[in-house]
Amino acid sequence: MGIFDIYLLEALLNGVLLGGVFALLGLGLNLVFGVIDVVWICYAELIMLGMYGMYFLYATYHVPFLLAAIICVCGVGGVGVVLHIVVIQPLLGTAPINQLLATGGVLFFLQSAATVAFGIDFRNLGIRLPILDVSGMFVSYARLLAFGVALAGMVALYLFLSRSYTGTAIRAIAQDRQIMPLMGVDTRRLYIITSAIGGALAGLASCLLVLQYDVQPFIGLTFAPITFLICVLGGLGNMVGGFVAAFLFAEIISVAGLYLDLEWGYVFAFGFFVVLMFMRPQGLLARRS
Amino acid sequence: MRRLAPWIAGAALVALPFVYHQPYPLHILVLVLIWSFVYTSWSMMGRFGLVSLGHGGFMGIGAYVTALLWNYLHVSPWIGIPAGMLAAGAAGVLIGYPCFRFRITGHNFALLTLALSAIVLQVVTATRDFTGGSLGFTPNRYHDGSSIYALQFNDKTTWYLVALGVWAAGMAVRYWVERSMLRYALEAIAEDEDAAAAAGVHVTAEKLKITVISAMMTAFAGAIYCQYQMFISPDTVSGIAVSLQMVFAAVVGGIYIPLGPTFGALITILLTEFLRISFGTAAIGWDNVIYGTLLVVFIIFLPQGLLGSIIGWRKPLPAARTPAPAE
């Protein structure tokens, strides 16, 4: 097969689009980690909640898609705040691993609460977005949309962090947790804002994923590993690194999926991750100290 | 009397199936013993602050290597189990060495080991032509189904004794580690890695030792679980859910005391069975709702675990230990 093989090109293009989805998945988790220094193991379950929210709003109550999406983004943002206040805040002073384990408990809770409440049926919105034909290559419209929104979300987050007063304070607290409170920064408030944004980003991801995947209580387990690996490979808390990592993973999965199976794509991506961790243990774009 | 107590308890446990042999309670006890062994293996790393989410992977390796060797190459589990343990140990070194060499600790270590669980799960799913994928895998029965060569037994009493032996061996390994220099080295590392290294502790080597021990024990448990249930699927022996289940049960029981993980296994399995029997299919999911809530509550309020706290209230530990030492 030549390099200009149309299937390979299609796989590469789809990889770029899948990378957009992955990048969006990693964005919120990375923000929360970078600022609060906490890993939300239950992050993918927040996305699951958002997807159920979308399903019920759109398919059961016939709320227009855009309005439903806005409600979902705000709703999951609210869940992020609750998660922070109830689970993370009491544990802020203890060993970091305790916070990770506590959110593991939240993962169990949300997953099985969804099983109890909604059953284990696969549900989908019933929206079939068209598939675009770009000079012989097939591109899913849903992925294109997700890619566009991921880019927009990145830019919006970047502008918020770099241009607004609150954003500047958030970046400052991420750099030095001890000094900033002495400078009169209200850490509590900033942590809550960050959690809200992190949750909202999960909500945004859920609005787009619900177009491509059926909702079920265990959908989180599908997204969780890849999301965490993206954040770790990019360097936890490093947004740009996360973005690069997302595209690398997506290309590997997409190209390996072309020649072998989709599962092998994941196996290669995870193997690649382990190999890269040997070489760059602090993440792809970490500065050498 | 205090020195005799463990022996009396042990004798009572051995005598139990001869006095009382209802299949269902024995089945529950076998499960409790096997999972206790798994949780004990996990806690041997967890108690030194090495929180691994890769143990689902180790367990899967042990179970699948043993079962695949048996079905396709007709290798007896007596050889298959050591092979699976070696494979898991190798996986432990593969993932552990770079982590310890480059000082990946805390969050990053947990997430990196999570990659191992995910890889094992995906490999099992991807090679579905051999492993049956997510539909699961059943080892072939050996003739009439009861043989020491194939490590397959029909009656629960034999399995109970096997599981009891396995569990006792696990406690013995833990006891041996607790009394060895390894423990002091690892405790020093958990307190402060740099100080430990300066005091002459070979940080990477010591951490690798406990990782390999823990990984091999977990793989062993996976294989025994497979021989007992005669069915494995990626969801029951590998993946993140299993890894988190280990963390949960061990933390609830208490990881700093020898019987903590056993206690954790006992209450989690009894709770699941209790809910299943009293509410039937209506209870699906409720057990995990309760576990999840308990895990959060425990980590916030009782980081020593249930049994650990009960003992702690009776007599304060000589040196107050902090939960899961910081990185």
Key structural traits:
heterodimer, A: 289 residues, mainly alpha, ABC transporter involved in vitamin B12 uptake, BtuC, two-stranded antiparallel ribbon, 11 helices, globular, B: 327 residues, disordered C terminus
In the residues of chain A, how many domains can be counted?
1
The amount of helix of chain A comes to: over 70%
Class derived from helix and strand content of chain A: mainly alpha
Largest beta-sheet details of chain B: none
Note the beta-strand portion of chain A. Answer: under 5%
Mean pLDDT of chain B: 83
Helix content estimate of chain B: over 70%
Q: Topology as H/E string of chain A?
A: HHHHEEHHHHHHH
Count of discrete alpha- or pi-helical segments spanning 4 or more residues of chain A = 11
What do you see in this structure?
The complex is a heterodimer of chains A (289) and B (327). Chain A is mostly helical. Chain A contains eleven helices and two strands; from the N terminus they run ααααββααααααα. Chain A has a two-stranded antiparallel sheet. In chain A, helix 2 packs antiparallel against helix 3. Chain A is globular, with a radius of gyration of 19 Å. Helix content of chain B is 73%, strand content 0%. Chain B is built from 15 helices and no strands. Chain B starts with a helix and ends in a 13-residue tail after the last helix. The chains are: A mainly alpha (289), B mainly alpha (327).
